Each structure stands twice: as C-alpha cells, then as structure tokens.
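> run fold Phosphodiesterase/alkaline phosphatase D
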Amino acid sequence: MTAGLRLGPMLRHVSATSAAIWVETDAPCRVTVLAGDTSATADTFTVHGHHYAICELTGLTPGSSTPYEVRLDGGRVWPEPDSPHPPSLVCTPAPDTPVRILFGSCRTPTDHSTSAVLRYGVDVVRAYGLRLADRRRAAMEGHEAERTDDLGDEAGPAEPTVLLMIGDQVYADELQQPMVEFLRRRREGGPREADAAQSQPPRDEVVFYDEYAELYRQAWSDPDVRWLLSTVPTLMMFDDHDIRDDWNTSGTWRREIAENPWWRPRITSGLGAYWVYQHLGNLSPEERAADPVFAAVRASRGDAAEALDGFAWRAHVEPHSYRWSYRHDIGRTRVLMVDTRCGRSVEDDSRRSILGPEGTVWLDSQLTGDVDHLVVASTLPFLMPEGVHYLEAWNEAVCAGAWGRRLRGPAERLRQELDLEHWPAFQRSFRAVEESVLSVASGRRGEPPASVLFLGGDVHFSYLAGARPRKGASSGTRIAQLVCSPTCNWLQPMMRRMMWVSVRALTGLLCRLLARMAGVRAPALAWRLEAGPWYDNALATLVLDGRGSEAVWEHSPVSTRAVEELSPGRTGRPGMRELVRYRLTG
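> ok
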C-alpha cells in the first residue's frame, strides 16, 4: 500500500541556508523533499498510530526562492495533481534586506459558509493565502494579479519572511460541528480507547491523542490555508485553548482541574500533540539534534507513544524539566517566542511567576543589545490597557491576602470568571521584564536596539501601545506593544463594551487607586494606546528595515448584508484591506 499525505507539508524553521519541512503521513514510509539541487530524506516516526517526519534541507543559498516537492517512498505527493495553487517555495532570507514578520492569533477553523462568516467573520489566514497565491501566480505569468475577489482586495505588504502563530492555533475546548461528530463516532463503544469510560471525557472537548490529531487535521486542511503553510516559514507558540481555557491560571485552577479523571490523558495528549504538531518545527537543526525528546522518539522501537506521553506528563508536573521558549535570529533582528503557559509557577499565590524561575532566567539572558530590533512574542500581551493592568494587579494582590484571608476565595473566583491572568496578574514577572527592557534601552546590555517590540494575541482585539520610562528621560529605543487578535473568532458584545470602558482614562485612574489600596506599586513603564482597539479579524505585518520599523494591520472587511446576499452554497472569496499603518522608528 502506497503512503499518502495526511497533513502538510508545512514549511517551518527557515534560516539563510536551511529549511525544515514537516509532514504527517497515513502510513510509515520514507519522506524525501527535493528543492532544486538540494534534497533531504527522513524516515517517519510513529506516535499513537500516527506517522510523522521532518526533513531538513541544508546548503541553501541565502535570498533564494526554490520550488520544492515531497515524495513518499519515491512517489510524488506534493504538489498535488491539478492543484490550482502555484508551486510551494522555500524562500531563504537574504542579508541586509527588510524583515517582514507576519503575526496573529486565535483562529477557529470554519467552512467559510454564510453562517460561519456571520458568526466568526472572515478567516483572514485563508484570505491572506488567497492573495499570496494570486501574487505568486501573477509573478509567474509576468503581469499584475487580477482582482477577482468578492469583497475587495489590496496589494498589501511584500511577502513575509516568517509567520508567527502566537496562540490558540486550535481550540480543544470549543469545537466546531465536524469535530463534535468525530468525537461522537470515535467514542461510541469502540475498543480503541478502552479507558474512555473510566476517564469520563467531556462530550464536547478533545481528550485523547487521536482526537488532537484530528483537531489539527481539521484546523490545517483547508486547501488555501494548507498551501499558505506549505510556502511561508511558520513559528508557533501555544496559549490556553491549545490545551484548555484558563490553563494554569492559578494553583487553585490546577488542583480543581486535576480532580477530573480525564485531565491526565488530556494534558498528556495536549502537550504531546503540541510537541509533534507545533514545537518540533520551531527548532533549528542544532536544537532539534540536541532535543532529548526527539532523540527518545526516534530511538523508540515501533510506536513512541510511551516516550512522548512520559515526557508530556513530566513537562506538566515539573514545568522546569523542559523549555518551550525559543529564539530565532533573522539578520540583526532577534525574535523571542516566550512560553507564558506551561512554565508558570502558580502554586503559591504570594510568589506567582508567569515564566517560572528557569523561564525568567532564560528570557533575561536573551534581552540584550547589539541588535537592531528585539521582538518579544508572548501569546499574552505584556502591556494591557491601563484599566485592565491595574485591575489584574489588584486581583493578584487580593488573592495573595492583601485584604485578608476572607477575600482570597472571592478574588480567586473573580480571577477565573474574568480571565484576570495576563502579565499584569504576575507582578513579579512583569517588573523583572520591565527592568530588563529598561536596562537594554539604557545601553547597559550592549548597544541599545532601535526598538523593543512586544507582540501579543489572546484578547480578541488589536491595538498598538507606546511605552516610555515613567521616571527619567526616554532613551532612543522605541518600546511598544503590538497586538493582533483574532484571525478568525470574535469578541462577545459584552466583552467589547468592557474593553471600551477599560481604555477610558477615568477607568485607568479608578483601577490604579484600587490597586494602590492593595499595595500595588506603579510600574516603571508608562504607556498609552496609540491606535485601536479594533475588533475585526486581522493579520499584522511588522516590517524591520535597518533601524527603521513599521507595523501594518490588515483585515477583510465585510458587511452582514454583503454576506447575506451571496447566493446559496457560495462561500465567497474574501479580500484583504489595510486597516492601519503606523511608523514605529526611523
């Protein structure tokens, strides 16, 4: 029987001379990637009956664009026959050229039907893929792309150097109907999960590895999204919904969730699947070769489920045992992808850390100068609207006992109910990063960069916040928070109203006084929203050119009337338009 592609190919970590291509196949096989005169081969490894490979192309030319194909046991499976998409390319960054970082978060996979667009809005990841395919096709044919979309399009920024998917790549606890139906069929008395009855899994959430594998397949199998991920280098970091809403928000949350018999298989499967589907491709060739989990998986005879499950459970109970954060350098730009979920220390409310001790040391060691730009991507925004910042800081203090033991319980319930678990709710961690950033900007850690830019998602609205030292003169380093969220989801009307209130100056003042009454000190940084908030589905591009930088948010504007007027059965072909462009430095 000939093996076929189940998912992928996905272009992952790319440097000036190397590129990693990840695939999932439906049977064990040998995978070969051919790109011009370069090739790479890898045998699949197996986890819980699923088969994967990652091929590393090396010796590539910086600044090159090379079509590639994928073969399984010698038979070509990519590009697919009669594909409407242009060839997938491996594009390596060239020295001294602008770096274009495309980023966004929070994507719910939909069928793009009228009802789906009315509920979640346009999937801008798909819309971006459609536009990029048009541009590539037009370049091949030597003329400008035709504007054939239903809802309008613009040329947009040049091709991205890398796509950062910063959180909630899948929603394991908020399922679409096809996934709900898959769970029902899988769990109907079948022998494949003998302990399903004992673990009593919730009917509308994934729990087991097979279910996570299907969740990823449904999220990344849309033809336009699949092609985009095959041809744009992609780096990822999890957030809570990749595992479960409010994951690791507090010690109380961890203790309560652990009482469910399905939690151990859930966290084991979720972290194991994340390592396979997302994290493995984040690593450079050297990091992958040194990764003990990769070594254990490849050394396993037959199925590596036991090795991966053991690692995943240990990563949950001993967060210091594995570092999910990583660094990716592109020329003189340093990108830090920061884990703010699995590595948390939350058992002691008086000594909470969003990074954990090891994560704190690692991030501090990476925040140095002698680069043009420091880009810190954490799924949770570092700089929240001022009212939200002080509310979360106040809540953390009350949970720790600032207003007495009797109010700790109510404060914990409020924390979980309102999701008060971002960076401001971890003041020790927030202040440590503040201190490091100000040290970098002052030149105490090498030549100051032109900018320190925090990228964030999670919150289902987008904005730009500019920051400066609260005391003393500002340095020449631009400090800013850029948030782009969601790419396909929505913020409930009540939450929109709350956000509108939170960005008002009076709200910030009142929450600041409340926090001060709980003993919270003012932060060393002062910041304000310079643009936003916006609630549309969006993707943002950060353009870094020498010491200059610019941010562009794009969306796919569509009115309810325009969607409803589409003929029955049509999904529409969305376009992309610029939402705002903002010069940051230079």
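Residues 324-585 form a domain with the Purple Acid Phosphatase; chain A, domain 2 fold (CATH 3.60.21).
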